[in-house]
Amino acid sequence: MCPVVEHEGCYISIVTMQRAVLLLCWLPLLHHCQAVNPGCACVVYSSLYSPQGGTFTSPDYPKKYPPNLDCLLYTFTGQLDEIIELKFDDFNLHRIHKNCSSGDFIKVFLHLESKGVSEYTPWSGLLCGGLGDIPAKLYSSGPVLILELHTEGASTNATGFTGSFHFIDRRKFEIDGQPIPGSMCDYEFVSSTLTPLRGRFYSPRYPSSYPKNIRCSYRFRARLKERIRVLFEEIALQKGDLSCINRADLIRVHDGRGTTAPSIAVLCNHGAEIEVLSTGADLYVEFVANSDWPGQGFKAIFQFQPLDDSPPSLEVDKVAPGAVTGTPRYSVIGPAVSATTSSCDNVFNSDLTKTGIVTSPGYPNPYPARAYCRYEFQGRGKERVQVIFQEFHLHDIYTDPKECDGIDSLLAYVLIDGKMEKIDAFCGSMTPRPLMSNGPKLSLEFNGIVSSRHVRGFRATYSFTENFGITTGRQLPEYPCAFVFNSNETRNGTFASPNYPGYYPRDTECHYFFNGQPKERVHLHFHYFDVEGVLPCGAASASDFVEFSNYMARDRKYSRHCGQLKEFDVDSDGKFFRVTFKSNERLDGTGFNASYVFYDEEDNFTVKPTQGHASTCKGPAVMFLVLQLVFRIHLQA
């Protein structure tokens, strides 16, 4: 039990026989509690006395806390149907080691089955350092949460911590599905007349941290003419910006009934407002956690959506010159514009058409002044919307406006963090580069403010593509964007970033796997490289990057590449090589264009001739590679 004495409204706690009496006047309510050892002092915050929550602080805050506190327990106790939320407003504990294993630290107990802890009770984590080194909030998985404070050595200038706590109804985080018998965390969601069309699902223990070494599944089954929409509102797995291929904790979404169905999303690290749409009546979400330090997990909503078989209504007064309507697989739609309202809206749905043509109103004739049009594109699964312009000629005032403000323009928007954010603006008469969405949604907004009889507007083809605009290699179903290049199929060729030579899409990860025969290696030559970021291409600089590896796992031999680089070469150490491209949600570049060739690792470095249907070695880059290999032979001779 904790030795506690009350004195004139303050509480006196005897910590050890050798230690002076410590005044705990900053503690609002002291109780007896079970502790690690009889030397522990403790304070209890109970929802019986503080149902609305309250605040807590370290001893003497905001002055520096006392040294050599063997342990001080903060115990938060709620009702059986409650969990505890802690938020630190200030945090400053002297840190010696990054892992907080010594020095001043707090042990955190989030998953307790009783109100006490002992030296054998596993803790959820250790906290030390500054406010930026700890989670923004902590949640218990049950009605009890305990913090155990330790300070060692001489006094420092660290001021400790202050924070707030609240008691939350845990029933707010119940999953709106049926648990599968015999499983720990598998759920099924079936659409019927007796079940709701929408609901929520969470990672285990959410909003507290999920357990280690688990695998959970969430199986959705819609009716025949329904599709499934899932929105991951928050994802907090592991910190950092590593590729998902190197992560132990991840969410994989399969477009079908099980893990053998194609993957349309692989999610890891942190994210918010990520939308996934099925192409059929089944969707399978798999959550795998194998890391040593679990994160908070995820929360998501699902919805069974009716599939609309009818084409979108185009309310126009007249058909634009040259505009025709094609089959559901291919349509050519030139939006007309009302002579009275000078506005038009169009919706292009991949359920009805996979490719087509979009134009400014009245094209190829001049568009009218004060014309406003919106073009909404909606895909499914791993589809991305790609727009390639054939003609672009808007009225230009021959100045240098900032992002086309105040003049005739076409603006592009994609979904970022749940909001449609502008990613580009086009004006004047320069034909834009190819445009690609970061997900299944894209919106174009046309503003024909002035117009003139000399401008024709724009014409572009659109397509809902699953290959991310990457036209070489063989696409793999295990990842949303992954391509394999096998030497027994093609000895040499090219590969590029998504949507090259246009700007690559944001929030995108693509893998390029090169598989040679035994005793073969692969040589890569990058002709062009423009990937947004600054060295060392890490999370601190919010950089996009390209990484190389001789393994599926991370290879520390190679540093990340980003920025605008001159031509360079990379060689594998063996028959396998991986190239991974990863972009974030912030800025973008035009990516990269590269060539590859497989060659023998024998001393003479001879390049095998092309066999069968393999592509022919052409172009200055390949000639450069051949000359380079000949030069090596000459040196060895």
From TrEMBL:
SUPFAM superfamilies per UniProt: Spermadhesin, CUB domain
InterPro entries named in the record: CUB_dom, Non-NMDA_GluR_Accessory, Sperma_CUB_dom_sf
Alphabetically ordered keywords of this record: Disulfide bond, Signal
Keyword Signal part of the UniProt annotation: yes
Gene3D superfamilies: Spermadhesin, CUB domain
Ranges for domain CUB: 40-168, 185-305, 344-465, 481-599
Pfam families reported in the protein's UniProt record: CUB
Signal peptide (UniProt feature, chain positions): 1-35
PANTHER family: CUBILIN
Protein name (record): Suppressor of lurcher protein 1
